[in-house]
Design a protein that fits this description.
The protein has two domains: about 375 residues, no CATH class; about 140 residues, no CATH class. The chain is built from 18 helices and 13 strands.
Length: about 575
């Protein structure tokens, strides 16, 4: 068993070479200079603040792009995860491999607890082992384990599994000790990540119909714990207002779209190496992918439903999978959102496969063939693809970092410098360019201003010494996934709207239902001033480009995508 667990953990060994990625750079700088950000602290590394209350340093540093909504907010309450990353930093410093090693150890703890949970639920040893293997090989675990900033999901999973196991023991024994421990662990899951509230909700449902008044009391206590948690977050100002994270009360149609995709693609992703991430990363693949997932789900839904009905804890696991998924729907559809819901789906799948493959009855040959197909897809094929994704992301993470690190810029300027990036091959690489640049160079005088987060071809027209216009020759600006991180409403933009940054003012000139076609930017000084540097992607690097003369235009062709895994 130890060798098998070690094998599942070592499938993530390529992450040791990922280095830091995206939000990791912001976390490193906060841990090294805890007073430089208005809201982020070592014990609160996910409180990115809001645009309304941003202090002067945030505005001056151009932390938010020019299109950020005035009511934008991204304040996540994850103190336990923050403390874990803080401890990692104290032990490993800037050695990313050490922090990835911590995540590998935590994955081993998680899988051990998953196996223990399934045994507590009464699953036979073989079925429990098969279910644990399905969880270990779930596609989304590659980023949960490999991306240091995604430690929140890993810790949420650990405490959730431990809470569910103790909740089952409390129901079977009727003793208060396991009940109190289950509620404590459920609280720790919620302190690791907001969706950890599903652990408290699951305890409440599990105990409500249990024998004896003590379990009924525990059920009420679990429900009150979940309610108190939500109310506390709201009163403390935590929450999110962003099109990237739609809520059912803010953007219900977009939230329902996310729910629709995950309810269809989620189970299929557990059974196959179906890439949910590609539905979002490659818009052209969205509807073909959804249709394919629907067809697969229609084939396997019946056996899964029958397996759930035949299991003693089938209804509990199915209900928990849904409870764990619902809080995750605010994020764009992704494989990593299934890390915790897979805990509920895996035993249903394992029970079905074990029953179908163990039958020798002639009339069940068709069911056996389907079960063999699913078993081969969910186990060896998914395992191979999981390892392959981990290996391929070694290159992807390096390329993402080099977008900013290799920019044609002097790393030691002598005075303030505003760098305007006209286009780039990856939107995710420009979500937080300042943190990555400062981490690598220590330069405190440079400000990065991404004028878009896409590869669009653009027409760059000079209006006067201080003013230019940028027009998209492809899809409109503010229409891709990562640009929506800083938008707060799906209401169409209107021509004439103005936005202000620390270096320039933007006026929207031509808008359409899908976004902005053309905007005008007026700088505080002439474009030729030493303060301003313009960059565009050319020959595999962000290179300097001189602004056109007044009244002249320059057309920049569409950038090639940096990497299929980096939209």
């Amino acid at each position: 068993m130890a060798l098998l667990l070690a094998f599942f953990v070592l499938l993530h060994a390529p992450s040791l070479f990922w280095g830091f990625f995206a939000d990791d750079f912001t976390h490193r700088l906060v841990l090294e200079h805890p007073r430089e950000h208005p809201t982020l602290r070592p014990w609160s590394l996910y409180d990115f603040g809001d645009s309304a209350s941003a202090q002067a340093i945030t505005f001056d540093d151009a932390v938010f792009p020019w299109w950020t909504g005035s009511d934008w907010k991204a304040r996540f309450f994850r103190p336990l995860t923050s403390l874990s990353l803080w401890l990692d930093h104290e032990v490993w410093g800037r050695r990313a491999a050490g922090q990835h090693l911590t995540s590998l150890v935590l994955q081993g703890v998680f899988l051990t607890l998953v196996l223990w949970l399934y045994r507590c639920a009464g699953l036979a040893p073989g079925i429990a082992l098969l279910a644990m293997a399905l969880v270990a090989l779930e596609d989304g675990s590659v980023f949960v384990v490999g991306w240091i900033a995604n430690r929140n999901s890993l810790l949420e999973g650990i405490f959730t599994v431990a809470a569910l196991g103790m909740a089952l023991r409390a129901r079977d024994s009727g003793r208060p000790g396991p009940m109190v421990l289950a509620l404590t662990l459920a609280g720790l899951a919620a302190l690791s990540k907001e969706s950890g509230i599903a652990a408290s909700a699951a305890c409440a449902l599990l105990w409500w119909r249990g024998p004896g008044p003590l379990l009924r009391t525990g059920s009420v206590a679990a429900a009150l714990l979940a309610l108190a948690y939500v109310v506390s977050l709201l009163f403390a100002g935590f929450g999110v207002t962003s099109l990237f994270y739609p809520t059912p009360w803010g953007e219900p149609s977009l939230w329902l779209e996310h729910l629709f995709v995950m309810l269809i693609a989620g189970p299929v992703s557990l059974l196959t190496p179906f890439p949910v991430d590609m539905l979002v990363a490659v818009p052209a693949a969205f509807w073909p992918g959804v249709i394919l997932a629907t067809l697969v789900l229609l084939v396997v839904a019946g056996p899964l439903a029958r397996a759930a009905g035949a299991m003693a804890q089938g209804a509990f696991f199915a209900g928990f999978a849904l409870l764990a998924l619902l809080p995750e729907i605010c994020a764009p559809p992704s494989d990593r959102l299934l890390f915790v819901p897979a805990i509920g789906l895996a035993p249903l799948t394992a029970s079905w496969l074990a029953g179908a493959l163990g039958s020798g009855v002639q009339r069940k040959k068709r069911a056996q063939r389907l079960a063999w197909l699913v078993a081969l897809s969910a186990l060896p094929l998914s395992g191979f693809c999981l390892f392959l994704r981990g290996v391929s992301f070694v290159r992807s993470s390096r390329l993402a970092r080099e977008v900013v690190a290799s920019a044609e810029l002097d790393p030691r300027p002598t005075e303030r410098r505003d760098v305007l990036v006209l286009q780039a091959p990856s939107g995710i690489a420009l979500l937080g360019p300042l943190a990555a640049w400062r981490f690598d160079t220590g330069d405190r005088l440079t400000r990065f201003h991404a004028l878009q987060l896409g590869q669009r071809a653009v027409r760059w027209t000079r209006v006067d010494p201080r003013t230019f216009e940028l027009e998209s020759l492809d899809e409109p600006f503010l229409s891709n996934l990562f640009e929506r991180v800083f938008l707060t409403s799906s209401r169409p933009a209107r021509a004439g709207e103005r936005r202000r940054t620390s270096a320039f003012e933007v006026e929207l000139r031509e808008c359409e239902p899908g976004g902005v076609r053309r905007f005008r930017l007026r700088c505080d000084e002439p474009l030729e001033a030493e303060r301003f540097v313009f960059l565009t992607w050319r020959d595999g690097r962000l290179r300097r480009i001189a602004p056109p003369a007044s009244g002249q235009s320059v057309e920049l062709g569409r950038c090639e995508r940096l990497d299929p895994l980096l939209p």
